[in-house]
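Hello forum,

I keep getting stuck at the same step: I have a sequence, I want structure tokens, and every attempt I make locally crashes halfway through. Rather than fight my setup again tonight, could one of you with a working pipeline run this one for me? It's a single chain of 633 residues.
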Amino acid sequence: MKKYWVSLSILVLVAAVFGANHMKPATRMPANLENRLVPQGQEITELPGTSSPIYLPTTREDNIVLVDSSLNGYGMLAGETNPLSWDPVNNRFLMGYRQWAGTTASGVIGAALSEDGGQSFFTYSNLNAGVGAQQAGRYPSAIATPNYPLIIWNENGGGGGTYGGRAYYTYDEGEYGGEIFTPPTDLSSSPTTNDIWQGSPCVSYAADGNMYVNTVFADWTDPRDKYLFRSNTEGAWDGLPLTWQPPVVMLDQAREFLGDASSNYTSNGALDINDDGVGYFVVTGYWNDTLAIANHTLFIKQTIDYGATWSAWQHVPDQTMNNYFRALFPDSVYDETDDTWAVLSDNWTPFVNYDLDVMVDADGGCHLFAGVLPSSTGGVYPGWDITNGLYHFYSPQNDLFNWDISPVASLQSAWLLPDPGWQGVFPTTARDIEIPNMIYATYYTCPDTSSDLAYFDIMGVYSTDNGMTWSTPINISDTDDPNVDETDPHLARLASNGIAYIMYQMPDYDFPSVNPPATSEDYKNRIYFRTYSFMTDLEDENSAIPSGYALAQNYPNPFNPSTTLAYDIPVTGQMRLVLYDVLGREVSTLVNGNVTAGHHEVRFDASHLASGMYFYKMDAGSYSAVRKMMLMK
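Reply #2:
Ran it on my machine without issues. Output:
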């Protein structure tokens, strides 16, 4: 599959169009985590009386439903939450979100249920009624258990610490459609002890019928530890209130990670556990001992018993990160806007962004998705190069030291803009329960930098080989109106037969709800549900006959121990693809025979070879091409 990157010439055009609103590629930004998860302005209590038109595009065979609205868009701004859940057995969808309830409160928690495969939704209102003096729900997530819809969120107030964050849950004890949601119930037996925010929940169903609900919340008061809340049933959930175990410290910020009250470098974290009980909790940050681990990298804990116990921290090694990204990111870039070259310092390192996602496959493999960009002392470079973007990291179960890294999509065009900025684009992911090794990811960005307005669309990518290679990014929303934005997409964790399910929002720019509005989330936002068939894109890609011969650069490169080689054949015929060492000796014959016309890929495992430079040569008809690859063990 051919990889797509935005060209530098397009980004030069962006600079001309957006002027002062567009960062230069060499602009260095502070590396600490920004607090952009709450409005920076004053919330408005009287809004204009005229709404903008409702936008419902009709595209292909996909289903798009306008579900509800929210006073602002901050409920879906956090990528670690899971506001959309799909129950594949009963084909039900459950959404949890901050609901429109007039102009006096932005924190009303609502839910929406579909029992017809996402064709229509029924909404539930005021699920956090009676909590505090004013409903102030934040960051809701949904879990569509087989019998009872479950919503988890935190309130801004009533808890401990600086901001008073407090975790709650509610469920419909009348089962689906019963409309008997329980009063909001604390997850913690000591709810005023910690300042609990922004949960990352997941649910697992064991073979014995037990259900396990795990969620990690971040404490927003220093030292900003992370806490695991856990509940499980004996057999199927019988509809009685869940019993939550006392919270467990998952991350001890002061003892384990670098940062202080003024400079936080540790992400909130993401969690996933599969039905076999294998799972991972992941954060990005600086290790407290920077002599042992210098990079801002990915740190992982593993469970094999549904969250009952956890391993010590593992991480993606500095050597792995430096070898891969120092070979990928250029040391210097040319900025045509002011005719200058910018050069990274000799000791620059790759920086893993704060927005991330984690997925556990059916075999227990760990899939991490995160943005990566270059950094040097004092900051990061969001717009440095088209290789700034989203990457996939994979390690099999019980390993977590050897990692395959593959590029997913460039995010440079979005990171160059102040909104969403380099900390404002998060990936969400899903795995296909019917097609082995097929996984999906979504994000949003500015796809058309030639427009006179910076409008945003939802993009999607898929992989058919468990994340080793990725499709060309697909513009899922693909709206042709530059005044219409689609933002903050969340995938349901499960997909089926190439069809994925997406929840996203569209800001109504005629209704600012924060003064002054700084981001798209500072407006009234409409909430949408959409099904999307990636299978159509896959069939289109596979059916296309290349116009000529081509040998692509292997992916990833450098690699350890496996990589993918792709080539195009315009007509069926004989071809050879052979690997050589630096002395010209034949090492391995990858292809030798009759090959049908089309796009082809070969997976090569170099576990038996020594580190170093190798060359691979393709001969087909009168075409001949040679490329080099680097094996780093």
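Residues 272 and 589 are 40 Å apart (CA to CA). If your local run keeps crashing, start a new thread with the error log.
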